[in-house]
Amino acid sequence: MAAETVTSKNMALAKAINESLRRALDTDPKVLVMGEDVGKLGGVFRVTDGLQKDFGEDRVIDTPLAESGIVGTAIGLALRGYRPVVEIQFDGFVFPAYDQIVTQLAKMHARSLGKVKMPVVVRIPYGGGIGAVEHHSESPEALFAHVAGLKVVSPSNASDAYWMMQQAIQSDDPVIFFEPKRRYWDKGEVTLSDTGSAAGSAIPGPLHKARVVREGTDVTLVAYGPMVKLCQEVADAAAEEGRNLEVVDLRSVSPLDFDAIQASVEKTGRLVVVHEAPVFFGSGAEIAARITERCFYHLEAPVLRVGGYHAPYPPARLEDEYLPGLDRVLDAVDRALAY
After folding, report:
1. Do 193 and 141 contact (CB within 8 A), yes or no?
2. Is the pTM of this model over 0.70?
3. Would you name the residues annotated as active-site residues?
4. Pairing relation of β-strands 245-249 and 219-223?
5. Do the beta carbons of residue 118 and residue 102 sit within 8 Å?
6. pLDDT tens for each residue of 161-183
7. I want to staple 96 with a disulfide (CB 3.0 to 4.6 A). Which of 67, 224, 248, 287 is the partner?
C-alpha cells in the first residue's frame, strides 16, 4: 500500500477555498463550479483562479449575469446527480436568486419526502471592511438561517475554509457558504491530505460544530466568520486589564451549536454575541433567547449583542462607524462585568 501523503501549507483564506474546490473537482467528476466570471477571470477575488484552465469550461462555467438562473440551473443539475458549487459574486447580489433558494432549493428534500437530495453549495462573499460600494457589503445570513432546509456556515480562517468547503460539497443538503471577504487575505496553516484516513486527523471538526479558540473564565465572546478575529483581538486587549475572555467560533449559523455555547456560559456566567449583521432580528437574538432559556441560573448578566445598526449599509467612508470594532465590543464586555 502506498504511504499516505500529508502536507501542510501556509495560505490565505481565499487560496484555501481555491485549493478545496480544486480537490473536489479532481476527486468527483460530478462537482461543477458555476458563476459570473469564475472561469477566465478566476472570480473578482480570484478565488477560482486557474480552475477553468485545469478542468475545462464544462466543469468551471462562466454564467450570464443572472443569479436566479444560476441557482435554478444548479437545482436542475442536482436533480440529475451533479454537485454544483455556485458563486454569487457579492452578498447584495443574492436577492434575485432568493426566490429560487427559498422556494425551491430549500424545499425539494421535504417536498419529495426525502427521495430528492439537493447537494448544492451557494458561495457568497459577504460582509464589509473592504471599502466597497452599495450592495457589496451585506450580511444576510439571518435571512437564510430562518429558512428550514438550508445549512448556513461561515469559516473564520484558512483551515476551516478549506475543510468546511469539502464538507459542504459532500453534504446532500443545500449549504449557503458565507465567505468573509475582509479575511480573504488572512493567512493560516492548512493541513492538506491526499487520502481519506489521513484527512480524519486534519479536519477541524464536524461542519456544524463550534470551537473554543481561546479559553477564558470571565466572559464568553461568541462570533463567526469575520468577527472571530476581532473577538480574539478584544480578548488580547482585555487581558491587559486583567480580564480573561473566552472566544467561541460558531462556524455554523444554522444549525447552531448551542451545546458549545452553553458549556462556555456555564463556566463564565456572561455572554456577548458579536456579528457584522444588524443586531435587530439578527442571529444574536436567537442565541440570546436560547441561552437565556438554557442557562438562566448560570447567567450573572443579561446576554448582550454587538453588531451593525438597523440601517442600510453606509458609504465606504462611514463603514468603520457602522461595523463593530474593538471599542464597541470592549464596552459590551464592561457592561456585562458591571452587573
Report:
1. no
2. yes
3. 136
4. parallel
5. no
6. 999 999 999 999 999 999 999 99
7. 67
